[in-house]
Design brief:
CATH superfamily: Winged helix-like DNA-binding domain superfamily/Winged helix DNA-binding domain
Radius of gyration: 17 Å
Strand order of the largest sheet: 4-3-5
Order of helices and strands: HHHHEEEEHEH
Distance between the termini: 9 Å
Number of domains: 1
Length: 164
């Protein structure tokens, strides 16, 4: 099946994000976990929250300062921390990051992330997945401890499918 996507015909505006509220929640989460939300971590999280699509590390680096890029190690450390705290997810196949769509981070427990990725426009949507206890039990049988699972499903979003 051949598909040509005209990005100008589709409205892919993400749902508005209350960036200030999400940044405040992140600071509270870090404080409760005994961690520091440094200015570089906060700025990195802000840039990911404001992105309309998954963002690559180098895009964060380029946008970090109004008058120049940040040092790569600073951003990579911040991304690692934010992912560890469950505030962002890494979409492996895109080598990009998105803010976690879960409504509650207060427990500090990480959830299984599922993503619907549009091959045409690049939109990503985080979806709730049922518990994957079977994976954990099979891993335990093999003597393996699962730390995280990310499911990525690729296809076409509703707007890009309108031309089919």
């Amino acid at each position: 099946m051949s598909h040509a996507c005209d990005h100008h015909d589709h409205n892919h505006a993400p749902a508005p994000v209350n960036t200030a509220a999400r940044l405040a929640e992140a600071q509270t989460l870090c404080a409760e976990a005994g961690e520091r939300m440094t200015t570089s971590r906060l700025r990195t999280y802000e840039l990911i929250l404001e992105a309309s699509a998954p963002v690559k590390a180098y895009d964060v680096i380029d946008r970090f300062h109004p008058d120049g890029a940040a040092k790569p190690p600073t951003v990579y450390r911040a991304l690692s921390f934010l992912e560890h705290m469950g505030l962002i997810h890494r979409i492996e196949s895109l080598n990009a990051f998105v803010a976690c769509g879960a409504s509650d981070h207060s427990t500090g427990s990480h959830h299984t992330a599922g993503f619907l990725l549009c091959d045409c426009c690049g939109q990503s949507v985080e979806i709730a997945l049922p518990a994957l206890g079977a994976v954990d039990s099979r891993a335990a049988e093999a003597g393996f401890k699962v730390k995280r699972i990310t499911l990525e499903a690729r296809g076409l979003c509703q707007a890009c499918r309108q031309d089919d």
